[in-house]
Every structure is written in C-alpha cells, then in structure tokens.
Amino acid sequence: MEFGSRRHLMDSPQPQNTTDQELGDQSKSSSSAAMPIMVSILVVVICCTCIYFVYCWRWRKRNAIRRAQIESLVTLSKSDLPLMDFSTIVEATNNFSKSNKLGEGGFGPVYKGVMSGGHEIAVKRLSARSRQGTVEFRNEVELIAKLQHRNLVRLLGCCVDMEEKLLIYEYLPNRSLDAFLFDATRNPQLDWKKRHNIILGIARGLLYLHEDSLLKVIHRDLKASNVLLDNKMNPKISDFGMAKIFEGEDSSEVNTGKVVGTFGYMAPEYALEGTFSIKSDVFSFGVLLLEILSGQRNGTYYVQQHGHTLLQQAWKLWITDRASEFLDPTLSNSYSTSEAFRCFHVGLLCVQANPDERPTMSTVLLMLISDQIQMPLPTEPPTYGRANTISDFSLSTQTGSSAYNKSVNEVTITLVEPR
C-alpha cells in the first residue's frame, strides 16, 4: 500500500517544471519585445552623437574663420588706420548707452562719443546679428583708409577686440540729408543755395570715387540717408560697405549674383540683371538730385500715392514744359531759375534707362557749373518702378526705409533681390 502511494506520487504531474517552462517562454517573449526598443535607443544615440560631432565641427570651423577674419582685420587696421583701444571707446560712449545712440543701420548701431580731449566722434558698432558685417567692416576699412576727399566722410580709426568690431568716424552734428529733406519741419532750412551746394558736393565726391582717386570705386548704395552734413551743411558721402573697386583701366561693367542697394535708387540694369558700372552710380545720383529739387522721396509710398515714380513725374512735367511745378514749394521764388532748370535737366539725363546714354560724373559736374555747355535732350526714365510692376521687388527687405528717420553718421546696408 505504501508502495502504491509512492508510485502514485511519482506518476503525478510536476507543477514546478511547468512553471519553469512558462517562465522560460515569457523570458523569450520579453527578450523579443525588448530587442526593437534597444535597437531604437541605439539608433537614437548614434544619431545624436553624429549630430553632436557635426555641430562641433561646424562650430570649430566657424570660429576658425572668425578668428582668421579678426586677425586679418587687426593686421589691416595696424597698417592702414589707427587702431583704437576698446576701453577708450567704451568710456567715450558711456558704455554704449542708449542716450548716446544716434541710429541703427544694417551694419549695426551708431553711437556718439566724446574723447578725453573733448573731440566728438561717431562709433559704428558691428551688430552680432549682422551676418555680413565682417565683410562690410573690412571693405570700409580697406576703402575709406585710402580715400581722402572733403566730400567723403572721414574715418578716424577702427577697433577690433575679440568679437567687437568698431569703426570710428568724424562726428557730423547735422545728421544725414534725408533728416532735413523729407522732414516737413526741417525742410525749409534747405534754401536753394544750400541745396545747390549739396548737389555740387555730392557730384564732386562721386567724381573723385569714379575718376580722381587711386582706386576706381563704385559706391552702389548712394541715397539721401548715406549723405551726411557737417556743421556748414556741406555734404559727405558715407557707407562704403557695399562699394566695389574696379580692377584694371579697361573694366566697364560687372555682373553680380547679388543685388544690393535701395529700391528707388537702383539703376534698371542693376536691379533686373545684376549688372553694375559707374553709370549705376550716375543713375542713383540722378534720383538723389531730383529728390533734392522736389523735396520728395522716390520710393514705395510715392508710387502708391501717384501710381508712378518720382522719375516718371519729372518726365511728365519735362515733356509738357512745366519744370517749375516739380520744384519744392518751400523754395518759393527764391531759387535761381537757370541753375534749377539746369539741375532738373541734368537729373533727367542721369536717370535715362539706357546706361550708355547717361553722362559720366565729370560731364555731370561740368553741366552743373557751366551754362555754356550744350546739353543733349533726355530720353524717358525706366518704367520698371510703376505700380503694376512694383511687386516684382522684395521691398519689405530694405532697411533704408526703417533707417531714414534715424540715420545719423551711420551706414545702412540694404539688400534687395529681384524675384
């Protein structure tokens, strides 16, 4: 009986063995489910590691380029311009206080400073958000250090300290031309004598850049906000960040993939085809001359109001022999009729659609100062700025419009790319 009971126990199912098998199956199932999760985590880790290494590589590359640029700027400043100490500039501008801020352009903010001896300066500080600031900084230092003319703004020195890049200019208390020309309260201060003097001064400065300096320079962004006025209202051309030097005597024009400038001042061949030459500057001068005569800005607002550009308005009055209606009403009858009409005629010659028909700046200056020279009849200005085609341009990107009312000893950089 005992033997039968023992046999019965031996023959009965073993629950422990069944449990072990189930656990083994569950373990295999858990391992199979965990495998995709582990693979996913591994892939994420590898991807994050790769991204991190790429980021580090690009960061080091950017820093290497930045250091090389700064080192080259330091070398350049030592050889061509006085290199000023950063602490001196900080003290002169009261640590770049808001009360000393004069304005801001595409390059960055501009501050008024007073040196220890009482000498006033204008300090242009490269903005950390300016992507092309280093390029324009070097361009200004290279150009203005070699250009000396009474109608060009004078660069006194520069400062390169770690990430800080500063340009130090002479301080001009009367701000820029647009601060007077397009301000209803200050516009009457520009009588005919002052306006005529400003026109001649700008022409002389541009002639120096094109023909009389050691370098043949095309400004590419001549406009009212880039003409500064000294205490005697003498004009000085500023903003050489976008200027280009022509290589060789036989160079006549250059094609560029990037169009820089301000809508309303750009020559049609430059705005639409990317081709610029000294005649592009002549066109900008013509626009500026007509603005000085009329007291009105040739821009988007004018087109929206009148359905055509200021240039088209000038042409309409020219062909109907009503040139006197184009002149700023604040001039009243205090202007010289012969000088004003000659300026009007020259302005239309400068803004002709065909660049070959535009005069050079030497001829422009001669026509402005002499009543003996026979001037050709102008042809119609370009019509690409009419209301029906104005949407072809990226007007919202121009910094000129936002910097007009606060342009003081500053450089504004405007990029406009045709669509």
Please sum up the structure shown.
Residues 96-373 form the Protein kinase domain. With 419 residues, the chain is of the alpha+beta class.
Structure description:
The chain has 419 residues and is an alpha+beta fold. It folds into two domains: 85 residues, Phosphorylase Kinase, domain 1 (2-Layer Sandwich); 230 residues, Transferase(Phosphotransferase), domain 1 (Orthogonal Bundle). It has a five-stranded antiparallel beta sheet, with helices on both faces. A two-stranded antiparallel sheet has the order 6-9. Strands 7-8 form a two-stranded antiparallel ribbon. A hairpin with a 2-residue loop joins strand 4 and strand 5. The protein starts with a helix and ends in a 16-residue tail after the last helix. The C terminus is likely disordered. Its EC number is 2.7.11.1. InterPro entries: Kinase-like_dom_sf (IPR011009), Prot_kinase_dom (IPR000719), Ser-Thr/Tyr_kinase_cat_dom (IPR001245), Ser/Thr_kinase_AS (IPR008271). It catalyses: L-threonyl-[protein] + ATP = O-phospho-L-threonyl-[protein] + ADP + H(+); L-seryl-[protein] + ATP = O-phospho-L-seryl-[protein] + ADP + H(+).
